[in-house]
Amino acid sequence: MNPAARPSSEPAPRYLLVDGHSVLHSWPELRQLHSRQPSSARERLIRQLSQLHDSGQWKVTLVFDGQRGGKEERPRDSMAVLYASAGQTADSIIERIVQVHSGRGEIGVVTADHAEMTAIESLGAFGFSPEWLQNEIQATDLEMKDTILRERKKKLT
């Protein structure tokens, strides 16, 4: 699927699974931060994805290759942050989630790994690039700011 394409909004849930390390190494500002302070880079990514999750457009799950022994965190409401355990990869977790949720709504997967993109698309998910994700976050941020401005104007009139 073309990474610039965007699934239409539907009442069915829209899941977005993000390969965390793929994004960390694709976005220049996060890659640079990750080389000096890996935990700070992860936290910045979590904050940005939390805003996307909180917009209600996607149910976001962020998946990292295991550094924390399979730990699961829910730092912002129901946005999940998963860490693959020993012997697992973020890719294997993402593929399992796609299989489990297949047919229950739209599923998007963000990865820079072309082999993983092919695998998840064969399972019925939409594949998106880390660049698409950056654009999606920016667009969602602008939409939220516009909504706030409209609401403020309504209150003033």
Q: Layout of SSEs?
A:
Blueprint: E1 14-19, H1 20-26, H2 28-36, H3 38-54, E2 59-64, E3 72-76, E4 79-83, H4 90-101, E5 106-110, H5 114-122, E6 126-128, H6 130-156
Parallel strand pairs: 1-2, 1-5, 2-4, 5-6
Antiparallel strand pairs: 3-4
Low-confidence stretches: 1-6
Strand percentage? 15-25%
How many structural domains? 1
Structural class call reads alpha/beta
CATH class: Alpha Beta
Treating each run of at least 4 consecutive H or I residues as one helix, how many helices? 6
Largest sheet: 6 strands, mixed
Tertiary shape: globular
Q: Strands of the biggest beta sheet: in what spatial order?
A: 3-4-2-1-5-6
Element order: H for helix, E for strand:
EHHHEEEHEHEH
CATH topology: Rossmann fold
Known CATH architecture: 3-Layer(aba) Sandwich
User: What's the total count of β strands?
Assistant: 6
Percent of residues in helices: 40-55%
Mean pLDDT: 86
State the separation between the terminal residues, measured CA to CA. Answer: 45 Å
How does this model look, in words?
- The protein has 157 residues and is an alpha/beta fold.
- The chain has one domain (14-156): 3-Layer(aba) Sandwich (Rossmann fold).
- The chain has helices at 20-26, 28-36, 38-54, 90-101, 114-122, 130-156, and strands spanning 14-19, 59-64, 72-76, 79-83, 106-110, 126-128.
- The chain has a six-stranded mixed sheet with strand order 3-4-2-1-5-6, with helices on both faces.
- Strand 3 (72-76) and strand 4 form a beta hairpin.
- The longest helix is centred in the C-terminal third of the chain and has 27 residues, at 130-156.
- The radius of gyration is 16 Å and the shape is globular.
- The relative contact order is 0.18.
